[in-house]
Amino acid sequence: MKKFKIKTNRKLNRSLGGDIFLMALLLVFGVFSAYPLIMTASNAFKPLDELFRFPPTLLPRNLTFDNFRDLSELMENSWVPFTRYFFNTIFITLMGTVGHVIIASMAAYPLAKYKFPGKTIFFSLVVYSLMFSPHVTATPNYIIISSIGLIDTHWAIILPAIASSLGLYLMKQFMTQIPDDLIESAKIDGASEYRIFWQIVMPLVKPAWLTLVILLFQRLWTTDGGSFIFSEELKPVSYALRQIAQGSIERAGTIAAVAFVMMIVPVTFFMLSQSRIVETFSHSGMK
């Protein structure tokens, strides 16, 4: 009998020229993607005359921090203290993010690991809800929030964020991959459902709920209250910054500083956690 050897070490059939071409192509797309971010950061440190120069320069020739000083003076002279705006943003972001992760995880666990009547239909509705943009659901959301008396409160922003269906979908897809034998073994050892959920299931789906934290943080950090919050003392910091940005052309430098401040936090979060987002989407099937 002939013995066949299986070769396990196979090299990709790719030439050096092909590698150079791919690297050059990725470099071009990388520069193209990073250019708006670099320009936004650069404009924040440019004097007024450089902001209106054509063609625009990528880096500031005369570095200045006057734009941030002007922004600080405007915020200090505002009717509502800047610390109040900042507190509102932190409260909305933390409550909405933590609440969404907890509610979505607890709802996804029975969907992933238990059988009950209507399970398939319910999850199908969750998937279908992802197809609707926020503009489509804006009017129903307002009617519901108004009917329960939450207009002009922070909860008008927090509750819709907690009820978002994206987190339920992601957590369910991740929890489905957890072996049932692992949960059955924990039950045999006497673990309760809550202990299984918090000490076994949640650590195993850490990439999923970390991604939810990142996505919700970015979304709530930039919210301005929309048509739900009218009181000035309840507005988030993004509202105050955008009010400054609506000033005259003399505030072009301040507007550039506002754009940089609003961009730096979400971009930093994404850069520090982009591997988690890619891992979560690749496991959940999200395109």
Description:
This protein is an all-alpha fold and 287 residues long. It has two domains: 19-64, no CATH class; 81-251 and 266-284, MetI-like (MetI-like fold). Helices cover 69% and strands 0% of the residues. It has 13 helices and no strands. The protein has helices spanning 16-43, 48-51, 66-76, 82-113, 119-129, 134-147, 155-162, 165-176, 180-188, 193-204, 206-221, 237-245, 252-284. Helix 4 (82-113) crosses helix 8 (165-176) and helix 4 packs antiparallel against helix 11 (206-221). The longest helix has 33 residues, at 252-284. The chain is globular, with a radius of gyration of 25 Å. The two termini are 49 Å apart. Residues 1-8 have low confidence and may be disordered. It is found in: Cell membrane. It is a multi-pass membrane protein. It holds the Pfam family BPD_transp_1. Belongs to the binding-protein-dependent transport system permease family. This is ABC transporter-like, permease.
What's the level 1 CATH class of the largest domain? Mainly Alpha
Count of strand segments: 0
Average of the residue pLDDT scores: 80
| Poorly predicted parts | 1-8
How many domain regions?
Answer: 2
- By CATH, the superfamily of the largest domain comes out as MetI-like
The helix/strand series, from N terminus to C terminus, equals HHHHHHHHHHHHH
Approximate strand percentage: under 5%
The name of the CATH topology of the largest domain is MetI-like fold
The whole-angstrom Rg is 25 Å
Main sheet summary:
none
Shape: globular
CATH architecture name of the largest domain? Orthogonal Bundle
The helix count comes to: 13
Question: How widely separated are the two ends?
Answer: 49 Å
Percent range for helical residues? 55-70%
Structural class: mainly alpha
